[in-house]
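#struct-help
A.M.: can someone run this one for me? Single chain, 335 residues.
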Amino acid sequence: FAAVVLCLALPWVTIIRGASIDVPSAIIETPLTVFTVISLAILGLVMCQRSLSMGLFVVYLAVLAPFANNSLAFSVALWVSGGVGLVICTSYVKRRDWAVCALIILAELQICYVFIQFAGYDPFWFGLIQAPIKYVWTTAAVHGTFGNPGNLGVVLAAIAPLAPPVILPLFAVGLVLSHSLLSIMAATAGVCWKYRSWKFAICGFMAFVIAFIIRGVNILSVWERLRIWGFTWNSSSWWPAMPGSFYLKIAPQLAVIDPTSVYLQEHNEYLQLYYEGGIFAVALLILFFYEYRKAFMGPYGGALVAIAISCVGWFVFRQAAVAGPVLLILGLAKG
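D.P.: on it. Structure tokens below:
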């Protein structure tokens, strides 16, 4: 019924325009805005049949977007609706073992490519010639095809708990080469959670120590993240700052405070969700964890634990290359 009303109402909404919009622009922009908001809201309500938390989140972002007065808010709403759609679609996959096998193969191929990068070559971007030294972020940091060692670490950490124990050492090597201490901790926690055994923690601790010796701890990076989290927390309130507002508001302020550090994302999904979505978004997050409470105890529980930990220190859902495998895991767990 709502879809029928929307289709019939669109020719008439051209008469609605904001104070800063002229008539010719209103004829084009108003129907487009109404169409986007209402269609996303309807889509979110349909999604509620499969996941109440994710469906309501789509509806919430659709309602917030027109009040943000910027196109980025609509982009975020569209991005989230697409992501939720993928989670719901993949939750209907029947041969889950095939999907898990595909995820493990994806991780293994990335690790193989990591070995090539470790040797100083990157065929996909530089052909068969040796990659420029500046391209390698640190002495031995590699990134697979993700462009950032942290992104590689997040994906490997999410898939590691799904892999059989016999190939976990290969994952450990990939995680060590990524130099991501957070991902090593996330993968270790996920594997220990899946097998309900702390013996894997010893291997994870060894990988952490090796990565620590090679990489060390960048105290400046840790301090910058703590400073950014504190700045964002002090700028937050129960009322939403609107989708995409971290990039538009917080990031420019941080650039003024310290031009040498570039943080376009919060590096903490939970805090950025609270800042941009307010207390209602946090309530939906709690509902999401409640919906997945049984999944955490199932075969995908370890992967979910790894993802949840990675979200504490990384922007897991802000890049499509990283979000793809993670969304597939959420869908498989949801089913």
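A.M.: thanks! Residues 190 and 302 are 4 Å apart (CA to CA).
D.P.: also worth noting: The mean pLDDT is 86.
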